[in-house]
Amino acid sequence: TFRDLIFDPAFGGGLREDRTLKAIIPGGASAKVFRADEKVTLGGPGLEGAGPKRKVDVLDLPYDFTTLTAAGSMSGSGGIIVLDDSTDLVAALANLSEFFAHESCGQCTPCREGSLWMAKILRRLGSGQGRAGDADQLLHIADNIPGGRTICAFGEACSWPVQSFVGKFKAEFETKEAGV
């Protein structure tokens, strides 16, 4: 489970004493983030743990492909990123978005332009120059890259972190907008 991987001394060893868990990225840069306080629904036909649907604390999710997929994320590259309460999520997402903007091959317009604009908006928010509506604009861009609009899966991969970070922590992004 994430609880074991993060807190067991044989694995992650936990957080610093004065910190609390804020979020978990379960599978590297393109995996959708989980809030530390999130509960996900598992069970039902075709889902991990077939049987009655049940709510499961994110920390109690087994770390396996099937469960993470059923919970709405993925194991991806297997790199688990643990974010504590000192993490500036705008800065963290800006870092991920810069990676995707740099790595885009540039062939498909939605991915090429979308990844650059998401990185630009996140840099602006992080530098104190945010504009009203930036969080919604990020979601709009991220929602319009995937869905068969690109040749490969990279466009979807660059959208997922933005969709999940802004979707699950929107207030943190909105506090960096102008006039807030």
Summarize the structure.
The protein contains 7 helices and 5 strands. The protein is α+β, with helices and mostly antiparallel strands and 180 residues long. The protein folds into 2 domains: 83 residues, Roll (Ubiquitin-like (UB roll)), CATH 3.10.20.600; 86 residues, Up-down Bundle (de novo design (two linked rop proteins)).
Write the layout of secondary structure elements.
Blueprint: H1 2-7, E1 21-25, E2 34-35, E3 39-42, E4 54-57, H2 65-70, E5 81-84, H3 89-103, H4 109-126, H5 134-143, H6 154-168, H7 170-174
Antiparallel strand pairs: 1-2, 1-5, 3-4
Describe the protein's architecture and organization:
Helices cover 42% and strands 11% of the residues. It has 2 domains: 2-84, Ubiquitin-like (UB roll), CATH 3.10.20; 89-174, Up-down Bundle (de novo design (two linked rop proteins)), CATH 1.20.1440.230. It has 7 helices and 5 strands, in the order αββββαβααααα. It has helices spanning 2-7, 65-70, 89-103, 109-126, 134-143, 154-168, 170-174; strands at 21-25, 34-35, 39-42, 54-57, 81-84. It has 180 residues and is an alpha+beta fold.
